[in-house]
Amino acid sequence: MKLINKTAIVTGATQGIGLACATRLIAEGAQVMLVDIKEEGAQAAAALGPQAHFFCADVSQKADVDAMLKETLAQFGHIDILVNNAGVTHAADFLDVCEDDFDRVMRINLKSMFLCGQAVAREMVKRSSGCIINMSSVNAELAIPNQVPYVVSKGAINQLTKVMALNLAPHGVRVNGIGPGTILTELAKQAVLSSPQARHTILSRTPLGRCGEPEEVAGIAAFLASDDATYMTGQTIYVDGGRMALNYTVAVKE
């Protein structure tokens, strides 16, 4: 176990990649605060055992982030790891996206990472150590026509990761990103795996011939949080089945 005596916050932690990350960090010995706007996260935390705690918060709101930080410090005393994972999508063509939906996606996907990252980094700087992981996407660089605010937010997350890393490096705090491809989560099923045709399209762009599992993303988060990654900062690792390297399509096994 590589994270014994470490404490972590995972946002968007009630399902999918967030829950998988929390589960893996606990398996590696960490204590984890699961944070989500969905109150059923309390049950998810309880199922993970005594190393898991839950805090209900809207991490796009500063008051909630401040309360989250206060509760985490009360429970654990310090913070070593932040996994900024909360995120949503909104499907609409560019000409049809309304301002409220654009703002909502940017607030949850991007502003939350700024607010949580800044609040937690202020505590990490006091101890001259810490690791922040921002959940990006292959769509930071590859666009989907009807996922306008999502694609924009993920591109911005990559730049936020870099500027955070540069600012915090002198303080001993590392910041990296993870860019998943299509992972078998409820979010992906709703956004890009909604039909057999959509599945065929995704797999035709995936050299490994399958979608990823949340646990495969969580493994990268555990690596980045561990001492195995102490010389890495400002990077985004793509967990995408080879999609970013592909310049054509591949055959799909039906």
Automatic annotation (TrEMBL):
The keyword Cell membrane does not apply. This is Glucose 1-dehydrogenase. Pfam families: adh_short_C2. The keyword Oxidoreductase applies. GO terms for molecular function: glucose 1-dehydrogenase [NAD(P)+] activity; quinone binding. Its EC number is 1.1.1.47. Keywords: Oxidoreductase. Belongs to the short-chain dehydrogenases/reductases (SDR) family.
